[in-house]
Amino acid sequence: MLSLSSKFTLLILGVLMVPIGIFILLFFHNMEASLYKDGQTQMIYELDKSCQNAEQIAVNCKLSSEIIVNNESINDFLNQIASDKKFTFMDILDFYGKEISGVQKIVKSNPYIYKLRIFVNSNTVKEIIPLLYKEDKIADLKWGKDGVPPTGTWCFDYEDALAQTDDSDHVPRIASLITRLNDYRYGRYGIVESAVTMENMFPDLYHSTVTDRTCFIDSDGILYSSPQLSPLWEKQKEDMMDFIHSLEESESLSNGAVSKRTRIGGEEVLAGCVKIKSIQGYLIRIVSMKNEKVALRTSKLQFSLLWIMILIVLFLFSNKQVTHILRQFFEIYDTVYQVQKGDLKVRVKNMSRDEFGELGIELNTMLDRIQKLMDETLHRELLVKDAQIKALQNQINNHFIYNVLESIKMMAEIDEKYEIADTVASFGELLRYSMRWKSGYVMVEAEIDQIRNYLALVNLWYDDEIGLSMEIPQEILCQEIPKMSLQPIVENAIGHGMREFTEDTCIYMKGEIIENICYIHITDYGCGLEEAELEKLRKRLSGEIEDTSGQENGIGLKNVHDRLQIGFGPDYGIVIDSRKHAFTEVTVKIPYQKRKKGIT
User: Fold this and answer.
1) For the residues 279-298, what does the mean pLDDT come to?
2) Are 454 and 561 found together in one domain?
3) What is the overall mean pLDDT for the chain?
4) Does residue 49 lie in a domain region?
5) What is the DSSP code string of 136-161?
6) What's the whole-number mean pLDDT along residues 450-459?
7) Are residues 465 and 566 in the same domain?
């Protein structure tokens, strides 16, 4: 229902919109993919960095513990304490000055070590704070409430109950590496606690937000995070464990940090995980992409609105240009519309130099020719009408001719001139048959009857008689054939094939049905045709050369052949075969019709 200019405009915009639309989709798809990829790269880098920090701190804690484990003086002194040996004040002062001060210097020189403490099972020794404590003090610490854990055990995120501070709100939360001191004589004679602050070991935990948060999960599946986000982490803990298990099963964590898009707590996020091997735990970071997706969606909406505005401007501009280009076409269309309404005098004006201008020129030329042809046709119809009027004025009544012939016949019979009477009767029937054209088709039997009348008249001209021999089945006699199809063939046989006969002769007609096709063979044993003459006659029938037979033989063989093909199709007609001084055979080929048709 749209106008042609609108269709062209929409087509142009459609051709533009398809590649541009694909480009926009790919652009935003790549933008989103790049957003996630950059986030993954940044997350992997930061997780690896945090892992290295934790690994380094764990190594420092282990080295600090080994300083005490491998120091013979310290171990001898601790063994003596465990055996309840009495020490003088000078012995303790000497041990403190030489060994304890050296350990404290190591602790102070390492910024990552929070505390390095030794717990001994003795009631006689004096505590040297902050290095030497009695073993019963471990009951105040998280890792010592249920007994002393095995050597190499890490304990995370607990308050330092032994810290000497007046501000209870700023008691540091620490993580410790526990090492037992054993001797074959005294058994366990001490415990070493190498502690670091949780904030130094996992700084990201204490700088987390709801949208960018980090947690640590130890080998027992206990989750550690900032206190403010603990409720959120506990809700998503099951999803986090499934995430870790999936990475462990795929062995993705064997080469460092891994980051991927997943759903945590029903939200699509960017999740990263790295395994800290020295402390047998997992550092996990979750970054919500909600804000980025909202920003990306806003960009898409803004770009879409901008693109719609551009399309509207392009549509208006393109429609105006297309309308200007099709101006000549619309003028041609209006001209054709006026012609359809009957106005043949209208012409295309203001023709351009493009294809539409050429079309307008051709249309004007065509209208001029149509006008000329209509004038000629009108003049010709006037002439035809005038000729018809004159023909009606000069027409002789057919019944008057038949009545005159009937009167002559009766007079011949009265005078007993029966030969003349039969001749007039045959001529009257032949004339009546020739002049009655109520229908273009007759039965083969009716056509043969007229051939008999024709031969009766022809025999008046010759001393010798021309007979008719027939062998035609009843099925063929009932077939329809164009009127005056067989008689011209017989006339041609007499006029050409038998023009020199000197004795009685005969024309043979034979009919046969082969594969639903009727064949009527008309043969004369006259002078025949030479090969060249036969080939020329065949070319006349096929239309390869101009037919002149109509001028010599009335309707002529060509006329019969054409009417048979018009009536039954190109596969039918007549076929001629001849031999010089022997025979000429004309075969009429028509379709076999099982149903009889009435003749009018």
Assistant:
1) 86
2) yes
3) 81
4) no
5) GGGGGSGGGTT-PPPTTEEEEEEE-T
6) 81
7) yes
CATH number (domain holding residue 449): 3.30.565.10
Q: Is residue 221 part of a domain?
A: no
Structure tokens at 261: 């898009």
460 and 558 share one domain? yes
- Model confidence pLDDT, tens digit, residues 292-322: 778 888 888 888 888 888 888 888 888 787 7
**Residue 234 domain-assigned?**
no
Residues 357 and 453 in one domain: no
Residue 382 belongs to domain spanning: 344-393
One domain, residues 521 and 459: yes
Check residue 403 and give its pLDDT. 56
> Which neighbouring-strand residues pair with 134?
120
3-class DSSP assignment, residue 403: helix
Sign of the CA dihedral with 551 first, then 553, 558, and 564 last: positive
Helix%, strand%, coil% for the chain, nearest 5: 55, 20, 25
Query: Residue 418: inside a domain, yes or no?
Result: no
The three-state secondary structure class of 553 is helix
Place of tokens 């201008």: 357
Question: Rounded distance, CA 207 to CA 227, Å?
Answer: 11
Cα-based angle 578, 582, 586 (whole degrees, multiple of 5): 35
Q: What is the mean pLDDT of residues 325-343?
A: 80
Omega within 30 of 0 (cis) for the link into 591: no
Both 500 and 361 in a single domain? no
In the chain, the number of structural domains is 3
Decide: 153 and 138 in contact? Cβ < 8 Å.
no
Under the banding of pLDDT at 50, 70 and 90, the label for residue 396 is very low
Q: Which residues contact 443 (CB under 8 A, 6 or more apart)?
A: 477, 478, 479, 480, 481, 599
371 and 501 part of one domain: no
- The string of DSSP codes covering 490-541 is HHHIIIIITTT--S-EEEEEEEEEETTEEEEEEEE-SS---HHHHHHHHHHH
Query: pLDDT, tens digit, for every residue of 56-102?
Result: 999 989 988 888 888 887 787 777 777 777 766 677 777 776 777 77
Q: Are residues 349 and 452 in the same domain?
A: no
